[in-house]
Amino acid sequence: MNTPAGFQHRTAIVNGVRLHYVIGGSGPAVLLLHGWPQTWHEWRHVAAGLSEYTVVVPDLRGFGYSGKPESGYDGVTIASDLSELVRHLGLGDVTVVGHDWGAVFAYLLAAEHRDQVSALGVIEMALPGVGRMEAAMQPAPGGNYLWHMGFHSVPEVPEFLISGKERQYLRWFFEHFAFDPGAITAGDLDEYVAAITQVGALRAGLGVYREFFTTAEQVAERSKTPLDIPVVAWGGEASLGGLSLDSVQQVAPRATGGVIERCGHWATEERPDFVTAVIRALVPPTATATR
Length: 291
Known about the structure:
Elements: E1 7-14, E2 17-24, E3 29-33, H1 44-48, E4 54-58, H2 75-88, E5 94-99, H3 101-112, E6 117-123, H4 132-136, H5 148-151, H6 157-162, H7 166-176, H8 186-196, H9 201-210, H10 212-222, E7 231-236, H11 243-248, E8 256-260, H12 267-270, H13 272-282
């Protein structure tokens, strides 16, 4: 699993679901959230560079080695899982940083549980519910649009077509949406394929897409009360680019950020140095954590 030195694998029952997480370090609390089709593993390089922080990297509900219940894949429910995990660990103010769908859940954690989150980071995601993600899903020449958002939301058909071809399917995403396709190695692909081929994992992971419209409504409703904590948003130049920051400014008008050079969608693995620096700049210097 390439666990960073000093980190441990643990599990907790929170909000009625078993969550697997990796934890290490000491100091201000940082919560790192993965996206689809990944697991905690995508943050391994970043976590290794944050030893002076208490770093918590969970597998989200339905992903990796966490439980895979039949329901609960809307954003508010997953944010509730994370809130309970933070409370379970006895952490103080948390800086939460998410990539892909993890960024949506990070936002909803910050918006729904404002007493727990001191800062927010969004990496390579356009939030649904504010118009930007929806525009990026519209058909475009060459198939260069987020077609999979709609496909993954269809009941039953994606599992039928993907099952038995998980490795080829995931490899297409990791290569097509990358600036540096070599950033995710064959061994890393093995890790993600092993996770998504567990019993119930493909169905569970697609659950976040099937709850797209519910989650979009949740984001839209909470955007009416803008975040007043420090917020940054970054997109890769070969992927979403400035769209990440544009979408986040709809929920946090003072958000800053921009475009990560030499980077595609898989920023935590293509440019872990950049993402680590973003987190260091984001964490309040006077933040504390208890464990």
